[in-house]
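Task: sequence design from structure.
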């Protein structure tokens, strides 16, 4: 029998003994009235004499995380959602039967309830003197060993519940994530944007260039797709008369998994009528400066050892200029598909040799040679139109779109543009996408969204829209190197048996 099996067997034996003595393993009648964190904060500076004058006792519940037995006395730590607090169990205070029960049957990992007054130990630690201790939930499996458990990163993600129990930093990451989501929601609500919800299952996947997940609805007898973006539905709302809308949404893309990508992820998308992509650059600066100050009190943070300064204005660099000056691509290379393919091969940059769209080849060079170097907040503007199918053409140079992407710490954080609201131009671009699909490009949508074009024909006001990757923002502000660190339950390959 393995060591793990022996431990599990011993735990279950204890549980059976407790039940035979009439002790319920999973009662639901203990009601905590206090939190460990609040107790420690409120009484942080109280002396023992001042604590002794407090008439009330304190009632807390938490997971038993550590214990030290000293014969007729036991020191232990319990942990609730706000942190840990020490408890002290003394045989002559608790009574011999209850003390024996705790000593023999209560294990690390059990959730217990404790009630008693506060005092300070000789070392000055704020402690609850247990007058009452009860079992709230019996843990039938042991916690990971304190110093060597959960070192396997993948195991941490698979068993996030243990990761949260054992690692305060992980709990703090997800508290920060919630603060970030609240910040975005409060910001846009305060700016007069209406929060909306659009379909997650769509008859035609649109709003981005990505491979969708497919499902089937039996009652409707039709295929549906999990959305890759909410964009086309949010624009329908602009047509309908809502001039400022936003959605905090879940998107799904049937593509690769990496430190930056998860098949299911969170985006913020917002649309603003009578605005341009230039207006959104100013708004984006305002958003991130406000977020940095909200979280840190400053406009500077450190991410993976690099200082990031959000102080505006941020650089605005045209896409082609970035390739030339930051990526070091010779200008003559960009004019020819064959030259780009040869240049990419020399530098071991992976591109599809069948690709005919020049803008897509430029994008591959950009991803490899420019993006990793954009550490400070930087707007890349003037994207080629052929990789911006939903963006408005620039009036001075119709080969580029009124679009920007925001890069921070070497990765894309946001994508925005002045919206294309000419239904004739939109149809031409959709038809070009469909043509590519018929040439077996798996990223292009399978059919034209005729209803969206019909909506544009009723008239959509000039507008600008933006998508911000919430997961990547959380990575940035929690100094997390992988997207899996900031998603509670990331998708993983099947566990090997």
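Answer:
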């Amino acid at each position: 029998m393995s060591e793990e099996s022996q431990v599990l067997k011993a735990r279950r034996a204890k549980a059976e003994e407790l039940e035979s003595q009439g002790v319920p393993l999973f009662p639901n009648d203990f009601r905590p009235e206090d939190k460990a964190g609040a107790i420690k904060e409120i009484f942080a500076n109280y002396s023992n004499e001042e604590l002794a004058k407090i008439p009330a006792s304190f009632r807390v519940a938490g997971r038993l995380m550590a214990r030290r037995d000293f014969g007729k006395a036991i020191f232990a730590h319990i942990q609730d959602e706000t942190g840990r607090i020490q408890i002290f169990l003394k045989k002559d205070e608790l009574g011999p039967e209850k003390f024996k029960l705790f000593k023999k049957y209560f294990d690390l990992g059990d959730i217990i309830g404790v009630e008693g007054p506060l005092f300070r130990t000789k070392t000055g630690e704020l402690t609850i003197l247990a007058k009452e201790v009860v079992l709230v939930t019996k843990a039938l499996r042991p916690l990971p060993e304190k110093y060597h458990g959960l070192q396997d990163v993948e195991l941490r993600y698979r068993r996030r519940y243990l990761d949260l129990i054992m690692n305060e930093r992980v709990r703090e990451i997800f508290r920060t994530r919630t603060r970030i989501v609240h910040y975005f929601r409060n910001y846009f609500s305060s700016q007069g944007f209406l929060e909306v919800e659009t379909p997650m299952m769509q008859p035609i996947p649109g709003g981005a260039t990505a491979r969708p997940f497919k499902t089937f609805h039996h009652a409707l007898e039709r295929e549906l797709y999990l959305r890759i973006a909410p964009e086309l539905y949010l624009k329908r709302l602009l047509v309908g008369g809502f001039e400022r809308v936003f959605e905090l949404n879940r998107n799904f893309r049937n593509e690769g998994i990496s430190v930056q990508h998860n098949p299911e992820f969170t985006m913020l998308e917002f649309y603003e009528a009578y605005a341009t992509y230039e207006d959104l650059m100013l708004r984006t600066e305002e958003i991130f400066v406000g977020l940095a100050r909200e979280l840190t009190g400053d406009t500077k943070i450190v991410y993976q050892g690099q200082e990031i300064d959000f102080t505006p204005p941020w650089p605005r660099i045209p896409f082609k200029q970035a390739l030339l000056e930051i990526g070091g691509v010779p200008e003559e290379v960009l004019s020819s598909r064959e030259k780009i393919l040869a240049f990419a091969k020399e530098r071991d940059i992976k591109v599809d040799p069948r690709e005919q769209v020049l803008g897509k080849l430029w994008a591959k060079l950009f991803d490899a040679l420019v993006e990793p170097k954009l550490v400070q907040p930087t707007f890349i503007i003037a994207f080629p139109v052929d990789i911006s199918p939903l963006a408005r053409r620039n009036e001075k140079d119709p080969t580029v779109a009124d679009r920007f992407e925001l890069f921070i710490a070497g990765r894309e954080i946001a994508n925005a543009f002045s919206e294309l609201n000419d239904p004739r131009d939109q149809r031409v671009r959709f038809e070009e996408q469909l043509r590519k699909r018929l040439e077996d490009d798996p990223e292009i949508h399978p059919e034209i969204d005729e209803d969206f074009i019909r909506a544009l024909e009723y008239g959509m006001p000039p507008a600008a829209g933006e998508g911000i990757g919430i997961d990547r923002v959380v990575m940035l502000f929690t100094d997390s190197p992988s997207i899996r660190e900031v998603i509670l339950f990331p998708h993983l390959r099947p566990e090997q048996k």
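The chain has a mean pLDDT of 94.
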